[in-house]
Design goal:
Layout (H helix, E strand, L loop, with lengths): L7 E2 L3 H6 L3 E5 L2 E6 L4 H10 L2 E4 L4 E6 L3 H8 L11 E8 L5 E11 L2 E6 L4 H11 L6 E4 L5 E6 L3 H6 L14 E6 L2 E6 L8 E6 L4 H10 L3 E3 L1 H10 L32 H6 L4 E8 L10 E4 L2 E11 L6 E8 L8 E6 L2 E8 L5
Parallel strand pairs: 1-3, 4-14
Antiparallel strand pairs: 2-3, 4-10, 5-8, 5-9, 6-7, 7-8, 10-13, 11-12, 12-13, 15-18, 15-20, 16-17, 16-19, 17-18, 19-20
Helix pairs in contact: 2-7
């Protein structure tokens, strides 16, 4: 029986097909995984020049109301009180089991007005948790996901390229800041944020304007990039991905991202703080040939000590890198371990990301 589930398409679907992208199903969306020249070429373009990603599948939720700040402080782990209009912060949404519902980006657009960006696969879960926890707060929650297209212009040349096409001076647009600009008659919210480890911008625009913005930037020299390069770039930079490094069960306190968690009252606090860090999230680099795939076992001698959460061959350094949850006793930089790859134990060393 054929599935009745219809994959969603971003406003740039036809543009991807015209450029020869290989399209895949991802979180309910038809998305480009790579273009004709391949993932490595796209990855290196972002590291050395400029790449452009369609990330319109991401979820955008608007939180407004007189108690919007108090509500976000309770429902997320970072401290939104540190935000000012036009600024953003990386954050996480805890569950009540000592894990996460998702990791997020929160922008303060104005007083009592916030935009929360979540992963496409968790859009419904995040919305449902917000709604469940909003009963005692004066807040309004609106799912604006279908009202936005989102493009990520990333790489050392991104700022110079974007400055040629917008009406505003971008020199004051520092990291984690967002401002509205006009790009070829299109109103765009440009945020100095990204998921690649490079300088760059995430560009929020109306879906009807997405093709015009995309075509302008590609014609100016930005290389179209797919989900494959997005994943290898974020791993090389040491950034976590929900469903890999973080899940509903993993405790972010047991990772290098514990800095996100502020000492305050928040949903699920007791469960999070009570959960022992018997395992820790680490980076590792293979000393021999092989690729550490998600789910591969990690050993110390003949003792199984953990599992790979993400792994790849870095297109930039050509080294085999990965991240893993392993027993805390072995989670020391420089510790030698082994990864089981096709029944062979391949030597690896615990390394602190980023990997370049």
């Amino acid at each position: 029986m054929l599935s009745s589930v219809r994959m969603k398409k971003t406003p740039l679907y036809d543009s991807h097909v015209a450029l020869g992208a290989r399209m895949v199903d991802f979180a309910g969306w038809q998305m480009p995984v790579q273009y004709k020249t391949g993932i490595s070429d796209e990855h290196i373009a972002v590291r050395t020049d400029i790449g452009l990603f369609d990330v319109s599948h991401m979820g955008e939720l608007r939180i407004t109301g007189t108690e919007a700040l108090a509500f976000l402080s309770f429902t997320t782990l970072n401290d939104p009180a540190k935000l000012k209009p036009g600024r953003g912060q990386y954050s996480m949404m805890p569950n009540d089991k000592g894990g996460l519902t998702d990791d997020l980006y929160i922008y303060m657009d104005a007083e009592n007005n916030y935009l929360v960006v979540c992963n496409a696969s968790n859009r419904e879960a995040v919305l449902n948790q917000f709604q469940k926890l909003s009963k005692h707060y004066d807040v309004q929650i609106v799912d604006e996901s279908d009202s936005w297209a989102l493009l990520a212009l990333q790489g050392p040349g991104a700022a110079l390229l974007l400055a040629r096409y917008v009406n505003e001076d971008l020199s004051s647009l520092k990291k984690n800041r967002k401002q509205t600009v006009i790009l070829h008659d299109c109103m765009v919210d440009a945020a100095r944020t990204g998921y690649t480890g490079e300088d760059g911008f995430e560009l929020f625009c109306r879906p009807d304007d997405a093709v015009k913005v995309w075509d302008t930037l590609v014609a100016a020299g930005a290389k179209p990039c797919g989900l494959g390069a997005r994943d290898s770039l974020r791993l090389e930079a040491g950034f976590p991905l929900y469903g890999h490094e973080f899940t509903e069960k993993t405790n972010p306190l047991c990772s290098d991202f514990a800095w996100v968690i502020k000492d305050k009252s928040f949903y699920g606090r007791d469960a999070l703080w009570a959960k022992e860090c018997s395992q820790r999230l680490v980076g590792l680099q293979l000393s021999e040939r092989g690729i550490a795939r998600q789910g591969y076992k990690v050993f110390s001698g003949d003792k199984e000590i953990g599992e790979i959460s993400s792994g790849t061959i870095s297109p930039f350094t050509r080294e085999s890198i990965g991240m893993a949850w392993i027993d805390a006793a072995y989670a020391k930089e420089g510790e030698k371990v082994q990864v089981e790859i096709r029944r062979d134990l391949v030597e690896a060393i615990i390394t602190k990301p980023p990997f370049f």
